Amino acid sequence: MEKQWQLLDPNPESVRILTHEVGCSPLIARLMAIRGIGSTAQATRFLNPSLGSLTPPLEMAGMHDAVRRIHRALADDEKILVFGDYDVDGVTATAVLTAFLRRCGARVGYYIPHRIADGYGLGADFIKNRSLLAGVGLIITADCGSGSGPAITLARKKGIHTIVTDHHPIVQLPEDAVAVVNPTRQDCHTNLTHLAGVGVAFYLVIALRAHLRKTGFWKNRPEPNLKQLCDLVALGTVADVVPLIGENRALTAAGLQRINQDARLGIAALMHMSGSPDAPVDAEAIAFRLAPRLNAAGRLAHARMACELLLTENRQKATRLAGTLCRLNSRRQSMESALLESIMGRLAGPPDRLDRPVLVMDGDRWHEGILGIVAARLVRQFNRPAVVISTKNGMSKGSGRSIDGINLSAALEQCTDLLDRFGGHSLAAGLSLKSTNINAFRARLETIVGRMAADHPGGPALSIDARVPLDDITPELMDNLDRLGPFGQGNPYPLFMAAGVRIHASKTVGERHRQMLLACGSGKGGKLSAIQFNVIGDPLVADRFERIAYRPQWNYWKGRKHLQLMVEDTQS
Question: If residue 226 lies in a helix (H) or strand (E), which one and from where to where?
Fold first, then answer.
């Protein structure tokens, strides 16, 4: 599908002020202005993310009650259980809480449900069949629990207290929770709704450490350095695709620094086995190399393996677990490709299928662990929402992904009579329903999304930050661009445009990738290597492009690095 190129237009006065007062180049000033930075103070915070700028944790609703209850559990030597979600955000939040409570000398264990056998969230069965039998006195949820009111009420009746740490939207506060630490609470005014679940857990740890300091808890034991947990916070924050702004930016920057200076055993083992061990770890490496491997455990086996990898202090165990996760990820990739190929075959059938505003695909016993990533690939391919549903014994579970401008959660709200359960946000959601309702659900959702998409542009937008000729791509520019990182959701890596680009050489690599050597300027000077992934049609081209949209980056190979362009789109 042809992309709609849009050259962004920042406020000229903001660019002028930043160039003059911050002392940066007009290009860097332009990039900051595009990202909503208009003053010297904002630019200083942006260019120098610091943990010292974090909002005080005790300003979060529920935090006082949470730290006092955990302190009591520590004093009384109660058994504490951390209950987490099975994605990377939930696993890292679980690891943060567990690691800190271990340093406090707590009797603490953790539990992460099995995606298929247990399902999402804290349930009544877990309370009856596990917590009671294990003698747990306090449950702390990690990246879940806001919608677990019935289970929390049951736990309270059985003498088990619950503290919720979560970031998912709350419909109704669990009344019987001792504390609910969730920045989306209506009575929480800290403006921290962008935090991931691991960010909320880390805030609880900050507040708890400070509270324990006031009580003299650390007099007889070393006080933990919380920067050592920021690597876990960075993993979960980037993996959950929350905006890398404000606190998330500071936490991720600190975590990346930690990983690159002294990576914990599990992360080091996973990086070594995932390729490019010489390259520094940035947010992109987390998103495309670490997070998929950590997620593979929860998708195809059990997320506990990922949590054990992050918590282990045994090198041999780290190597073994990292190898297992890499093998699971390879299996996940094969299963994903097979399912996608099957779906693409179906889409090639009825001629009107691709004219529909949303793709709702269902099949018998498709693996539930890969539904979401296949839906995401359909969204990227066809630029419209997609829901992929697996049926089994009359019941079905599905996962959906959407595009900017189409609120999937709001669309599902209008299908509640056809669904047994659903949850999520504007761009991603999960659901369950009776298999007999799938056709009615498909028809209803197509009507709803069709109305939502009435004014939506036909093609995906490609937002370009600036016109930058290839001659200007230098190591000095790359150093300046690095200061704008970490990049990710809410702070995308800068995308540039160049015109009249000559192709010195071009060849196909893999099945559909184009590897090129592009001439800078007139072609008499230097040349830059470039790569373009997933080229549709013949990947070999003529001798020049009218325009290219590209991201400059460092490519690391055998201990050396060289400049490379990641080509996003071309016009011939």
Answer: none
Cα–Cα distance measured from residue 145 to residue 94, given in angstroms and rounded to the nearest whole number = 13
pLDDT at res. 107 = 97
Q: Does position 524 have pLDDT exceeding 90, yes or no? A: no
Backbone phi, psi, residue 416, to 5°: -60, -30
- Which whole number is the average pLDDT over 226-244? 96
* Contact call for residues 308 and 319 (beta carbons, < 8 A): no
Cis amide bond preceding 49, omega within 30: no
Instruction: Quickly list H helices, 171-314.
Output: 197-214, 230-239, 246-262, 265-273, 283-285, 291-300, 304-311
In this structure, how many other beta carbons lie within 10 angstroms of the beta carbon of residue 345?
A: 9
Contacts 24+ apart (CB under 8 A), 477-485: 477/27, 477/552, 478/552, 478/554, 478/563, 480/24, 480/25, 480/27, 480/28, 481/28, 481/31, 481/552, 483/28, 483/47, 484/28, 484/31, 484/32, 484/35, 484/46, 484/47, 485/253, 485/282, 485/283
pLDDT tens sequence across 22-60? 999 999 999 999 999 999 999 999 999 999 999 999 999
Structure tokens at 560: 């050396």
Counting beta carbons within 10 angstroms of the beta carbon of residue 219, is it exposed (0 to 12), middle (13 to 18) or buried (19 or more)? Answer: exposed
pLDDT digits (tens, 9 = 90+) for 54-63: 999 999 999 9
Cα separation of 176 and 481, whole Å? Answer: 49
Phi, psi torsion values for 223, nearest 5 degrees: -80, 125
Average model confidence (pLDDT) across the chain: 93
Q: Which pair of tokens denotes residue 206?
A: 């900050």
CA distance 513 to 508: 6
